[in-house]
Amino acid sequence: MTTATKDLYTLMSERKSVRKYDPTFKMTQAELEEILALATSAPSSSNLQSWRFIVFQDEATKKELRAIANDQEQVETASAVIAVIGDSDMYKNVEKIAAQNVAEGHMDENQKNTMINNAMNLYPYAPAELRRNIASFDAGLISMQIMLIAKEKGYDTVPMAGFDMAKFAERFELPEHHHPIALIAIGKAVAPAYGTSRMPVKDIARFI
Questions:
Q1: Does residue 60 fall inside a structural domain?
Q2: Do 53 and 83 contact (CB within 8 A), yes or no?
């Protein structure tokens, strides 16, 4: 980051949901990988990082995806579409994650074993719906980070939940424990987003 980097509040204010993109502008895979890598600093339940991604750049595949996504134009015209997937079997990666925590100096062996034991005593026995809800919650956290990081880098985004999730899972051969949650179009805007209002805090929060 440089001193020219915009502050967080400015980015939050300037990030808008853009639906008109320059179809000739193409982001590189390296740029998209960097955005995803930075976004993984997001918190997740028990640090199990239940998010997965499919990144669509191929023009023919984006055209096919557009049909699954209720014919939303931005799916085809944006530089890429990031599908955010939730993994409800996230606990199966706990040993790998815990070992990496030790290797990077974040915990010792005792803490690693505690993390593994806690996860394996809880998540395998939790109802499938609960694990799916946890994965959806984690996906929401990282999705916002993706959009803010993209804006800081000069790109525009729009999140979409309006797509046929069953058709998506079938077409892109998702395993049973992977659940499509959102699509994020990303690229360069050719028209500004609509301005939107927000309800005042007094109407949405109760302090007790």
A1: yes
A2: yes
Decide if pLDDT at 96 tops 60: yes
- For residue 97, what are its two tokens? 């994650």
Which H or E run contains 19? none
Burial group, residue 5, by CB count within 10 angstroms (0-12, 13-18, 19+): exposed
For residue 204, is it within any domain? no
CATH number at residue 179: 3.40.109.10
| Statement: residue 13 has pLDDT above 70 | yes
CB 84 within 8 A of CB 42: no
Contact call for residues 41 and 145 (beta carbons, < 8 A): yes
Range of the domain at 30: 8-191
Phi, psi of 173 (to 5 degrees): 55, 50
The two tokens of residue 26 are: 């193409």
CA distance 184 to 189: 14
Average pLDDT of the segment spanning 141-146 = 98
pTM of full prediction above 0.70: yes
Question: Which amino acid, residue 5?
Answer: T
The pLDDT tens digits of the residues spanning 161-195 come to 999 999 999 999 999 999 999 999 999 999 989 88
206 in any annotated domain? no
21 within a domain of the structure (yes/no): yes
Number of folded domains in the chain?
1
Single-letter amino acid code for the residue at 148: L
